[in-house]
Amino acid sequence: MTGHTRTVTVPAQEGRAFGAAAGDLVEIVDVEGHQVGDLWVIDAADHGRWLSTSHTRDRLERMFPRPGEQFTDQFREPIAEFVADTSPGSHDMLFPPCNRWLYESEGLMDHPNCHDNFITSAASAGVVLPVVPDPVNIFQNSAPEPDGTLDVLTAASEAGDSVTLRILRDAVVVLTACSVDYWPTNNMKCTPLLARVGPA
To answer: Whole-model pTM?
Structure first.
């Protein structure tokens, strides 16, 4: 990145929203390792358009984009480009964000969760959606097995690993540090994420 770069820290089990201009790079860094981040990108001019994981899968006919490929909104228009990945490359676009009902089913009441963290973070940036879209789960290690099983394993990313997206239109980006602390997803311990935002 060149020019002025902003750094946004996302504490463990919390979320943050920030603006990104068309052409900006957003680098998401796993600070301590093995931490999943739930990512949303919402059109700043039309909050009714956001990064759609299902439409991205359909357009690319892949489970996850490769660097050089694009994420699309629900109208199949590109909203972000996958630029670089220094991690082992395990990411997910199948799972919804964790929510209170997931934790309550495990006997965990009032547990932090990415569903509520998205709503709170998005609202802080003036974004209120009728639904919580499925996120891009950066660093989530849950590739399908040959028999179709989805085993959520510990994120393979190490401290300092990162992914970089180029934002293709003015957008509001929401990033949460996944709250799952009772399953191997985040190596049984939730830790912070870092986002660097700035021009290429």
So the answer is: 0.96
